[in-house]
Amino acid sequence: METTLDVNLITGKILSQDDRWSFVKGGESIELKRKALAVPDNVGNAMDEIMRTVDDATRAARELANSNGGEDEFGVDPNDPMKFFSYENNRNRNLSEFALLMALLFLISKMYEQVALLK
Fold first, then answer.
1. pTM
2. d(CA 85, CA 46)
C-alpha cells in the first residue's frame, strides 16, 4: 500500500489522501512493511525493558547502601531518658571509631618523640 498525503504545514490538517495498493505474489512487500513498521515498537519495548532493569539495579544498590550490615533497626522509644545518649552501632561506625583511636595513639606517640628530642 502506498499512501500520498497533502498536508497543510501550518495547521497540520490533511487536505487529501490517495491510497494505492500493490499486490506482489507471496505478499513479500506487505511482510517487509509490517516488519519495518514494527521496528519502532520493538525498540520502544527494548528501551522499556532496559529502563526497568536499570531501575531495579539502582533500587537494589540504594537498598544495599542504606542497609546497616544486616542488623535489625529498632525505633527509639520516645519515653526513654537515655535516647539522646544512645547511638547506632554498625560496622561503619565501629571502623571510624577504630581509625580515630589509631590516629590518636599515633599523635600521642609522635608527641612523645618530639618531647624526647627536646631533652
1. 0.32
2. 53
Radius of gyration of the chain (CA): 36
The terminus-to-terminus CA distance of the chain in angstroms comes to: 102
Q: Residue 69 — very low, low, confident or very high, per pLDDT cuts 50/70/90?
A: low
Partners of 4 in beta bridges:
18
pLDDT over threshold 80, residue 76: no
| Burial call 77-93: b when 16+ CB within 10 Å, e when fewer | eeeeeeeeeeeeeeeee
User: Residue 44, Cβ neighbours under 10 Å: how many?
Assistant: 10
In the prediction, which pLDDT does 39 show?
A: 82
Contact 72, 89 (CB under 8 A): no
Which secondary-structure segment (H or E) carries 33?
A: helix 28-66
Q: 20 φ, ψ to 5°?
A: -125, 130
